[in-house]
Amino acid sequence: MRGDPEFIGKGKGEGPGEVNGISDFQVSRDSLYLFLRRRTIVWSTSGKFISDKTRGVGVYRGEVLGDGNTLVSDPTSSRYLFNIVNEEGKIERGFVQTDLGRLTPLHYEGDIAFNGEHLYFAGVPESLIKKYTLDGRQLFSVATIDNYPSEINYVQFGADGGRMAMGYAPGALFSTAMIEVYDRYLLAVPIHDYDQTTFSYIDVYDAEDGRYVATYDLARMPQSLAVDAEGIYTLEYEGNDAYLKRYGNFLPDLETSHSEAP
Fold it and tell me: Pick from 76, 101, 110, 251: most CB atoms within 10 A?
């Protein structure tokens, strides 16, 4: 990467176009979408402020659908895990009803990816990957490679005022940190095992049916992941230093079940 970075936005704050606490962001065509707790801020990639809308639902992860709508995921502010929100911030429809009376919201924590047609979801504490149509039809649900039991992951206990506090239990087992979809493949980055050993792999699944395809070794665990025809891009930390790396796009040549990334 050459040259100095360009800064987009007005800085930290609460006013129109100002940002305080980004939960996710996406680039679509010539626009940059910033997802905050209950706001979506849109800037052009050239740095022009476009809009700042308040949504009727919170967001943990967001995807731009390309028709003026966005798909947001948040298990705490709606009875649905996924909601499609229009340009004015109004909920058009939701799907995958949550069971928060019985399950903790942590059960629904995960990352999403959208390939222009289908939505993919991978659980953080739940060892599963799911695929949906945008009308809410589930096409598959498969276990990840490390199919950890989830029963031990959560703890709830009484708090002051009669409310319940919740969190991850000691020794909780985690699954997937992030996913990306490219062509016919779904890439998943695992978090760590029960000994808190950090993994530095990319697991590859078939995006059509969820079948496991291959695993590739990286130098470090990616903190961010992106894919295009030219390469697989990662943000990796070595000590206190952060590096944006590009690996060759090995997906078209997949043959082995475990290889080092080129």
Answer: 110
Output the CA torsion sign for 45, 51, 52, 55.
negative
Which stretches of 174-256 are assigned E, i.e. beta strand?
176-182, 185-190, 201-206, 212-217, 224-227, 231-238, 241-248
Quick check: 60 and 77 in contact, CB under 8 A?
Answer: no
Distance spanning both ends of the chain, measured CA to CA: 19
The alpha carbon of 212 is separated from its chain's Cα centroid by a whole number of angstroms, namely: 19
pLDDT tens for residues 73-106? 888 888 999 999 888 888 899 999 998 878 888 9
Residue 62 amino acid letter: G
Please tell me what DSSP assigns to residue 170.
Answer: T
DSSP type of residue 183: T
HSE-CB for 122 with a 13 A CA cutoff: 26
Residue 176 has pLDDT above 90, yes or no: yes
Distance CA 206, CA 120 (A): 12
Q: CB-side exposure of 168: number of CA atoms within 13 Å?
A: 14
